[in-house]
Amino acid sequence: MTLQTDVAAHYGRDELLARLDAALRQLGKDPTRLTIDDLAPIDEFHARGREATVEIAAALPAGITGEVLDIGSGIGGPARYLAARYGLEVAGIDLTPQCVATARELTRRCGLEDRVRFLEADATRMPFASGSFAAAVTVHAAMNIADKEALYGETARVLVPGAAFVIYDILQGPGGEVAYPTPWSMDGRTSFLVDPPALCRLLADAGFEVLEIRDRTAESIEWFEAMAARAAAAGGPPPVGLHLLFGPVFAEMRDNLLRNLREARIAPTLIRAVRR
């Protein structure tokens, strides 16, 4: 198997929509008529969830005209948020066929299919003409991409000069090797973390100017601790949550994330950059 198929297999879970529909009904929701808030507990699939998505959106410049690219869009949460809250047009790309299919269906159920589209595509070989997008975001995706030169080079290629690029990813911390499993890798074979200085060099080489770096480790620790406390108090996770994506192993993944965060093995980081 190639790296791309390994990554797609990690995230591609069968019957995700069926499990989600059952969980939504348990909460008294109609799965055929949804809002982005109904889906936030599962499709904000990154450290700090909706809180981080709000920060990512706010890091984009006001008044964007043109389509925004979401690189590694998963099942579509951030893309739908940008469309619903800011009226933006968004194209999301992801390697995993199941994620793309689920993103399209959830977007249709939210009534946002006229603003958001999803494509199955490799972020290191994007199927777009140069200068196609007015801005780009990527949320917890580069951890699974080995060829970061190609990733950021392709991002620069498809953006217009002066376009904003907002990155929110898990970076390598100074505390040592990551403990697995984590939500992005079961054993580390599909994990390719870089530290902040290395990422800044990669971005500069690709044609970006880094404007700001925000370490969100402390906030992420607080968020995961609160998630674990709620699950313990309730005797298990809520009906709709990230466990639907991974099943019982998610509890171990969450515990490892907390350990990795507390021991400075990883650093969730938001970076604002601009295409030169």
TrEMBL record:
Keyword entries, A-Z: Methyltransferase, Transferase
Highest taxon listed in the record's lineage: Bacteria
Pfam families: Methyltransf_11
Record-level GO BP terms: methylation
Classification via InterPro entries: Erg6_SMT_methyltransf, Methyltransf_11, SAM-dependent_MTases_sf
Keyword Transferase belongs to the record: yes
MF-aspect GO terms: methyltransferase activity
Segments forming domain Methyltransferase type: 69-167
Keyword DNA repair among record annotations: no
Protein name: Methyltransferase domain-containing protein
Organism, as annotated: Benzoatithermus flavus
